[in-house]
């Protein structure tokens, strides 16, 4: 689609724009030692690249910036995969060299280091977020007005929450709800729990319990806590330091998204193994249509365990982020392989 000269100029523009966050002009590109074309030639090629949709020209500037299409072409055809910097390798070595007793601590440390190294937002979905299923639900009355809702998973994890008994609902009705949920939702992955609870079980519950909606909300609130404990976010305010996110409303919609745990899990769950890059409007959620999301899955053998992701502006250091995620995912597989004895 593009000539060798156009490919070189597009790559140079994106590299310079990632570093400067300022529109790039033909003169600045001509001064690069690796280009070797006159400003007039570069200007003509930039005009053609704009016509083809690879570049955009902000109204206030004579320079160009990459479009989402330009970034996609860059990632697919022009990206140079270099090596990690020594300080990046050292930071990762420190994480995996620590004698950490809990798997969750390993994942939390990885998430923090990634956000610090990239200045973007990182998220790590732990292994249990995909494979954990419901083993048993129990509700225990404490007083006339309070009860404890308990969820036990197939991994032995127990989540409990003290809640108020909905007004007008008897313990007999509560027992009916619990028995039905244990029958219909046993061995259902927790990621599917909420959708099944509302889409498949609610209609059946309405036949037996008048105030079933309140009880469903109670059960769902316990599940929400369980999900949140398995999602590790770091650097959530890093968007604030990116020049393209000076618009407070734009940033607020992204920060609000970080609070929606089920949505974040769905967003960061890749559709394929390995590295996946979604640029701008390729992301299904409008709040991040001006962002890029790079994810890497990690597994043991044929068993997928989790996902590491980086969310940042489309003006992202794609090569560096991909190298970091490759490095981290491979080390996580080694560490978790030892953890699970495989």
Automatic annotation (TrEMBL):
<dbReference type="InterPro" id="IPR021153">
    <property type="entry name" value="HrcA_C"/>
</dbReference>
<dbReference type="InterPro" id="IPR036388">
    <property type="entry name" value="WH-like_DNA-bd_sf"/>
</dbReference>
<dbReference type="Pfam" id="PF01628">
    <property type="entry name" value="HrcA"/>
</dbReference>
<keyword id="KW-0804">Transcription</keyword>
<comment type="similarity">
    <text>Belongs to the HrcA family.</text>
</comment>
<feature type="domain" description="Heat-inducible transcription repressor HrcA C-terminal">
    <location>
        <begin position="104"/>
        <end position="322"/>
    </location>
</feature>
<keyword id="KW-0346">Stress response</keyword>
<dbReference type="InterPro" id="IPR029016">
    <property type="entry name" value="GAF-like_dom_sf"/>
</dbReference>
<protein>
    <recommendedName>
        <fullName>Heat-inducible transcription repressor HrcA</fullName>
    </recommendedName>
</protein>
<dbReference type="InterPro" id="IPR023120">
    <property type="entry name" value="WHTH_transcript_rep_HrcA_IDD"/>
</dbReference>
<feature type="domain" description="Winged helix-turn-helix transcription repressor HrcA DNA-binding">
    <location>
        <begin position="1"/>
        <end position="72"/>
    </location>
</feature>
<comment type="function">
    <text>Negative regulator of class I heat shock genes (grpE-dnaK-dnaJ and groELS operons). Prevents heat-shock induction of these operons.</text>
</comment>
<dbReference type="InterPro" id="IPR036390">
    <property type="entry name" value="WH_DNA-bd_sf"/>
</dbReference>
<dbReference type="Pfam" id="PF03444">
    <property type="entry name" value="WHD_HrcA"/>
</dbReference>
<keyword id="KW-0678">Repressor</keyword>
<dbReference type="InterPro" id="IPR005104">
    <property type="entry name" value="WHTH_HrcA_DNA-bd"/>
</dbReference>
<dbReference type="InterPro" id="IPR002571">
    <property type="entry name" value="HrcA"/>
</dbReference>
<keyword id="KW-0805">Transcription regulation</keyword>
């Amino acid at each position: 689609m593009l000539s060798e000269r156009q490919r070189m100029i597009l790559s140079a523009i994106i590299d310079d724009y990632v570093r400067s966050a300022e529109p790039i002009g033909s003169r600045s590109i001509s001064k690069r030692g690796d280009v070797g074309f006159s400003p007039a030639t570069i200007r003509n090629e930039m005009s053609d690249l704009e016509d083809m949709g690879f570049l955009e020209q902000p109204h206030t500037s004579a320079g160009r910036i990459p479009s989402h299409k330009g970034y996609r072409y860059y990632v697919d055809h022009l990206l140079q995969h270099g090596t990690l910097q020594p300080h990046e390798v050292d930071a990762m070595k420190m994480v995996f060299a620590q004698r950490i007793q809990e798997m969750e601590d390993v994942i939390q440390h990885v998430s923090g280091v990634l956000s610090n190294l990239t200045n973007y937002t990182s998220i790590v979905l732990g292994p249990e977020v995909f494979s954990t299923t419901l083993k048993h639900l129990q509700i225990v009355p404490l007083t006339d007005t309070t009860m404890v809702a308990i969820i036990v998973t197939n991994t032995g994890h127990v989540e409990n929450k003290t809640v108020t008994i909905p007004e007008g609902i008897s313990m007999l009705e509560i027992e009916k709800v619990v028995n039905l949920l244990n029958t219909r939702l046993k061995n259902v992955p927790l990621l599917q729990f909420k959708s099944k609870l509302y889409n498949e079980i609610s209609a059946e519950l309405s036949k037996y319990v008048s105030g079933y909606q309140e009880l469903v909300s109670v059960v769902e609130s316990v599940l929400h806590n369980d999900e949140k404990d398995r999602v590790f976010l770091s650097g959530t305010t890093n968007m604030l330091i990116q020049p393209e996110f000076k618009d407070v409303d734009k940033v607020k919609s992204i920060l609000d998204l970080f609070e929606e745990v089920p949505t974040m899990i769905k967003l960061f769950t890749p559709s394929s193994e390995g590295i996946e890059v979604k640029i701008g409007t390729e992301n299904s959620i409008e709040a991040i249509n001006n962002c890029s999301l790079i994810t890497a899955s990690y597994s043991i053998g044929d068993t997928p365990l989790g996902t590491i992701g980086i969310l940042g502006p489309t003006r992202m250091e794609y090569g560096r982020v991909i190298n970091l995620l490759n490095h981290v995912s491979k080390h996580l597989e080694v560490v978790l392989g030892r953890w699970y004895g495989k």
